[in-house]
Design a protein that fits this description.
With 300 residues, this protein is of the alpha/beta class. The chain has helices at 16-29, 51-62, 113-121, 133-136, 155-162, 179-190, 202-209, 274-292; strands at 2-10, 33-39, 42-49, 71-77, 85-89, 109-111, 125-129, 139-141, 170-174, 196-199, 217-219, 221-222, 229-230, 240-241, 248-249. A hairpin with a 6-residue loop joins strand 12 and strand 13 (229-230). The mean pLDDT is 95.
């Protein structure tokens, strides 16, 4: 089994570009794959590899400025869930588009998975899912509010347009691994909301620790790798992915008339032009040829 490590850490990197090559070289040398994002505000990403190589990368990251107390979440994969290794430089490690928001200065109250169910059941609490609409579509907490956003950048505008709906309520928010809530709780505090809570470790930590018989989670949790979605015990749920738009698919989704493997699904049927579709079909042919040879195409 391969080890999959999901991590993020907010710290101040004066020169993120100087950190990129040594980190990439270490990952490549150990056969580690995945994506890591570097920005002035910190590091974010998910990587997979053998135990020793993942340990070496985590030790390297912990030695970076301000990262000694790095925390991460681990799961397992029977097959490599990533096609390649990328270390990218970004303006933000999770894009919200609110430059004055700094999670190092203020965030909501962290709630462990053991205490999360009580918040979900409280009458004076509004629970908000901060993830994208396609993530929410395959799984969320019972009773959670879905903002219907297509990207995290849309969340501030959604909140400002809907804040009146939550007057007099305490606000509890959650996301996949916790990073989006670092910014969304900080944002709500800047908007004058005083009682803001945040599921510590995100959905993944909840699914790891909460016994299924006590869980209020419904469906699968989308993850940005080849496993597509995880459930209780961090076990894959069997969802597939549209390799055109990268959104999750159920078996029923693949029976819809819009679906063409590797080319389109019902969610992206109107989102690409003929040139894009031709490119996707050629990529799918390459994926299928690689599979016939018993190898993996990087685009598959």
């Amino acid at each position: 089994m391969l080890t999959v490590a999901a991590l993020y850490h907010f710290t101040r990197f004066e020169d993120p570009a100087a950190l990129r090559e040594p980190l990439l070289d270490l990952c490549l040398a150990g056969g580690v794959r995945g994506t890591l994002l570097l920005a002035r505000e910190g590091i974010n990403g998910t990587i997979a590899g053998d135990r020793a190589s993942i340990d070496a990368v985590l030790a390297h990251i912990r030695a970076l400025p301000g990262c000694a107390d790095l925390a991460w979440k681990e799961s397992e994969a029977a097959d490599m869930p990533f096609g390649r290794m990328k270390v990218r430089l970004k303006r933000e490690i999770v894009t919200m588009g609110e430059p004055d928001i700094d999670p190092r200065a203020s965030v909501g109250h962290y709630v462990d998975p053991a205490g999360w169910n009580a918040l979900l059941r409280a009458n004076d609490v509004a629970v908000i899912d901060t993830r994208n609409d396609y993530e929410v579509a395959i799984g969320t907490f019972a009773g959670a509010v879905d903002p219907g956003t297509r990207s995290f950048r849309e969340f501030p505008a959604w909140w400002r347009a809907n804040a009146h709906r939550f007057e007099g309520k305490r606000i509890a928010m959650f996301c996949t691994g916790g990073i989006r809530c670092e910014k969304s709780t900080s944002f709500l505090l800047s908007e004058g909301v005083t009682d803001v809570f945040h599921l510590k470790g995100g959905i993944l930590k909840y699914l790891e620790e909460m016994p299924e018989e006590d869980s209020l989670w419904q469906g699968g949790c989308f993850v940005f790798d080849g496993r597509v979605s995880l459930g209780h015990g961090l076990r894959p749920t069997g969802h597939d992915m549209c390799h055109a738009c990268r959104r999750p698919l159920t078996e029923d989704d693949k029976t819809r008339p819009e679906y063409e493997a590797g080319v389109r699904c019902h969610r992206c049927a109107e989102e690409y032009d003929d040139a894009d579709r031709a490119r996707f079909r050629e990529r799918q042919r390459q994926v299928e040829r690689a599979a016939d040879r018993g190898t993996r195409h990087l685009g598959g």
